[in-house]
Design goal:
By secondary structure, the protein is an alpha+beta fold. It has a single domain, classed as Nucleoside Triphosphate Pyrophosphohydrolase (Alpha-Beta Complex). The chain has 5 helices and 11 strands; from the N terminus they run ααββββαββββαβββα. Strands 1, 2, 3, 4, 5, 6, 7 and 8 form an 8-stranded mixed sheet that branches. Strands 9-10-11 form a 3-stranded antiparallel sheet. Strand 6 and strand 7 form a beta hairpin. The longest helix has 14 residues. It is globular and about 50 Å long. It starts with a helix and ends in a 7-residue tail after the last helix.
Length: 212
């Protein structure tokens, strides 16, 4: 669900406190006060992903997963839960929550939707992705769909946001300049559209000093 600033402050205060709660409230305010960049007229299919920020004893963590080797697209890549917006979805938020439930067993009622990041265009699968940022204050046990999920990944935000964690490669062999971001986390490498979404999140939210 989407909640306003006052409701969000009351909701967060019941579950977490201190710097982490302040950091989430700050992100909520930033997302609500800006006009996000949208991609229109590309001819690409619309998709939505949930960007789940999870409260834990270790601090705030970003929940994503490694895709199985049996899915049709992006086999073995690290991604956020999400997929194409279907005709039965009320909107992109509903699509993101539905996909998160189908892929990881996340209950929509457990997610406080705090805003949306800039659209991201995938060059290979031809989707315009709307990243829906959600806060999960009291995470339940995940129930991954083995057909799509090889394993869930919880990445501490402080570690991903630490200066030097982000890698940038500029490619332009076809005459177009592309900024390719990536993050190395343990034995995993996050890259592609997922890394661009994380880069956009950190660009808005701030580096490790503002994320706890």
């Amino acid at each position: 669900m989407t909640i306003d600033g006052d409701a969000f402050s009351k909701s967060a205060s019941h579950s977490i406190s201190g710097p982490s709660a302040e950091s989430i409230r700050r992100l909520h305010a930033l997302l609500q006060s800006r006009e996000r960049a949208r991609i229109a007229g590309s001819g690409a299919r619309e998709a939505a992903v949930l960007v789940p920020i999870v409260a834990s004893p270790r601090g705030l963590e970003l929940l994503c997963f490694m895709r199985s080797t049996t899915v049709l697209e992006h086999k073995g890549e690290v991604c956020f839960p999400g997929g194409a917006v279907e005709p039965d979805d009320a909107d992109v938020v509903s699509a993101a929550l539905r996909e998160a439930n189908e892929e990881l067993g996340i209950e929509p009622r457990d997610v406080d939707v705090i805003g949306m990041l800039d659209d991201v265009l995938t060059t290979v699968s031809n989707y315009v992705i709307v990243p829906v940022v959600g806060f999960i204050a009291q995470p339940r046990e995940l129930v991954p769909d083995p057909r799509e999920v090889a394993r869930p990944i919880l990445a501490p935000l402080m570690e991903l946001a630490r200066r030097g964690s982000e890698k940038l490669e500029v490619r332009g062999s076809d005459g177009k300049t592309r900024h390719v971001y990536s993050y190395d986390f343990g034995a995993d490498r996050i890259w592609g559209a997922t890394a661009r979404i994380i880069h956009n999140l950190f660009s808005l939210w701030g580096e490790s000093g503002a994320i706890l």
